[in-house]
C-alpha cells in the first residue's frame, strides 16, 4: 500500500470516528434530557424506555466500533495496516474500502467463520 492510499484510509477512518462521536454526543444529550420518562401514560413510558434501551445498545456498538477504528489508525501509524493478521498477506483494497477496520483477508475471514460455524454446531 502506498502512502497516498494509507492517507486515504486514515482520513476515511478519522471521518467515520468523528461521525460516531457526534452521534454519541447527540445521544448523550437526548438521554440527559430524559424525554419520555415523564409520560403520564404507562404505554408511552414503556415505549420510551424501550427506545432508550435500544439507543443504549446502539451506542455500545458504536463504542466498540470506535475502539476498532482506533486500532486501525494505530496499524496505519506502525505500518501494519492492510495486512492480514493471520497470513501477513495484503488485504485487498476493495475489502478495505468496504470494511476499513478489517484485520483479516477475505480468505482468512472465511476460514474463521467456517471454524465458528463448526464449533457452534457441536
Automatic annotation (TrEMBL):
Please state every residue range assigned to the domain named DnaK suppressor protein DksA N-terminal: 5-76
Give the keywords, sorted: Cytoplasm, Metal-binding, Zinc, Zinc-finger
Zn finger limits (dksA C4-type): 84-108
Q: Which SUPFAM superfamilies does the entry link to?
A: DnaK suppressor protein DksA, alpha-hairpin domain (SSF109635), Glucocorticoid receptor-like (DNA-binding domain) (SSF57716)
Keyword presence, Zinc-finger: yes
Q: Where is this region: Disordered?
A: 27-50
Family matches, as PANTHER family:
RNA POLYMERASE-BINDING TRANSCRIPTION FACTOR DKSA, RNA POLYMERASE-BINDING TRANSCRIPTION FACTOR DKSA-RELATED
Q: What does this protein do?
A: Transcription factor that acts by binding directly to the RNA polymerase (RNAP). Required for negative regulation of rRNA expression and positive regulation of several amino acid biosynthesis promoters.
Q: Of which family is this protein a member?
A: Belongs to the DksA family.
Instruction: Please identify the protein, giving its name as recorded.
Output: RNA polymerase-binding transcription factor DksA
Give the species this sequence originates from.
Answer: Thalassospira permensis NBRC 106175
